[in-house]
Amino acid sequence: MKHKIALITGVTGQDGSYLAEFLLNKNYIVHGIRRINSNNNLNNLTNILNSKYKRRFNLHYGDITDSTNLHKILSRVKPHEIYNLAAQSHVHVSFQIPEYTHNVNALGCLKLLEAIKNLKINCKLYQASTSELFGNNNNKIQNEQTPFKPISPYSISKLYSYNLINYYMHQGMFACNGILFNHESPRRGNSFVTQKIINAALRIKNNSNETLNLGNLYAKRDWGYAKEYVKYMWKMLQLKNPENLVIASGKTYSVKEFVNKVFNKLDMPIKWHGKGINEVGINKKNNKILIKIDPYYFRKIELNNLLGDASKAKKLIKFKPKVSLDQLIDIMIEKKDIDI
Ligand code: NAP
Ligand code: GDD
Questions:
Q1: 148-172 tens-digit pLDDT
Q2: Which position among 9, 12, 28, 132 bears the catalytic label?
Q3: Is the CB of 31 under 6 A from ligand 2?
Q4: What is the 3-state secondary structure (H, E, C) of the chain?
Q5: What is the pLDDT of residues 80-97, one digit of tens each?
Q6: Do 302 and 221 meet the contact criterion of CB atoms below 8 Å apart?
Q7: Residue 158 dihedral angles phi and psi, to the nearest 5°
Q8: What percent of the chain shows pLDDT beyond 70?
Q9: Which ligand 2 atom is the nearest neighbour of the CA of 222?
Q10: Are 94 and 300 in contact (CB under 8 A)?
Q11: What is the mean pLDDT of residues 311-333?
Q12: Is residue 141 within 8 Å of 197, Cβ to Cβ?
């Protein structure tokens, strides 16, 4: 049987690891690029490395900023599909390391595109684009027509790669942008707000004396389930022609609502007191302060409201999100993925 070959950059991350599992299940040969790291960074790949699929799974050391290495890997692997998920993906951190963020997210994408072009690799390319591109525009709901107003080094770097992809698409390459809204899972990095809240709440439930320090409680996000969303990255590459598509749940909640849901589920209902940096979240049952505001976590500029309209994806790739925010929180508290 002839296998399709996929290459995933960012395979060790949240999305890369779920996508690798999804493609292996679909009988692909999967190659992934991992960065050299003095500590083992293969935790998210444990399922694959302990499964029968290991035989069809190959890891290559590399870095998206290293074009010599990209050329070497591409000419060896000759993939049919490439998923460019590698990124400095943390918005808050991008204000501290803007140059590095651009080297990885913007120039990395350029180096990959040029390598594909120069080696004449006949493949389809998915680029991990983002709802951060929308910034604070006045639209209540964002779709492919909404103007972009990036407001962080992260989103500016991702706008560069978004535009590059369009440029190569117009030159005839099958390259497309998945404009994904926030998506989470038990594999979400610890410093992103959902995982941070859930891990702290679980520790507090287990008698830790800590307080959970957060930044802006009033920002709203459209949160979905990462394991569910990766399927639609693949579906985008099964289209006849490349299309940029929004993938979103179509529901939005504030960080504060997320906190309330998590602590309620763990039987520590929260009442709120005070305003601004003096606002605190108190356990209704014993009056202990559990949540405080720490200005360190405020962003130079905040993106206030994300709410996606995925109508185009619903039409073209039959996008149909099944997991609600409540289910997602249960999955993250249990730290156990569900079949989807
Ligand atoms: P993630 O967990 O932070 O994973 C990022 C991956 O990129 C990791 O495997 C990381 O490797 C790798 N990486 C970082 N710098 C690299 C470099 N210089 N060269 C090669 N690999 C590098 O992110 P994610 O949540 O899975 O997101 C995947 C992609 O989707 C990212 O591009 C992100 O910007 C984008 N995105 C995410 C969301 C979301 O809500 N999750 C929404 C929209 C778009 P290490 O393991 O070595 O750090
Ligand atoms: N990380 C973090 N830590 N965020 C906090 C905190 C905190 O202590 N307190 C409040 N927040 C707020 C942030 O200000 C932001 O408004 C919201 O929580 C979500 O923050 P993150 O979870 O860090 O995600 P993000 O929305 O900035 O970025 C994620 O989603 C983008 C898609 O919209 C990342 O995955 C990006 O890579 C992705 O492109």
A1: 999 999 999 999 999 999 999 999 9
A2: 132
A3: no
A4: CCCCEEEEECCCCHHHHHHHHHHHHCCCEEEEEECCCCCCCCHHHHHHHCCHHHHHEEEEECCCCCHHHHHHHHHHHCCCEEEECCCCCCHHHHCCCHHHHHHHHHHHHHHHHHHHHHCCCCCEEEEEEEHHHHCCCCCCCECCCCCCCCCCHHHHHHHHHHHHHHHHHHCCCEEEEEEECCEECCCCCCCCHHHHHHHHHHHHHCCCCCCEEECCCCCEECCEEHHHHHHHHHHHHCCCCCCCEEECCCCCEEHHHHHHHHHHHCCCCEEEECCHHHCEEEECCCCCEEEEECHHHCCCCCCCECCECCHHHHHHCCCCCCCCHHHHHHHHHHCCCCCC
A5: 999 999 999 999 999 999
A6: no
A7: -75, -25
A8: 100
A9: 33
A10: no
A11: 98
A12: no
pLDDT digit string (tens) for 241-251? 999 999 999 99
Token look-up 């999967």 returns 30
Determine the atom of ligand 2 nearest the C-alpha atom of 298.
14
DSSP letters of 167-226? HHHHTT-EEEEEEEPPEE-TTS-TTSHHHHHHHHHHHHHTT----EEES-SS-EE--EEH
Residue 82 has which token pair? 């490439």
Q: 164, 108 in Cβ contact below 8 A?
A: no
Residues with CB under 6 A from ligand 1: 9-10, 12-16, 33, 35, 37, 41, 63-65, 85-89, 104, 128, 130, 180, 182-183, 189
Element (H, E) at 18: helix 14-25
Six token digits for residue 264: 């309620």
CA-11 nearest atom, ligand 1: 9
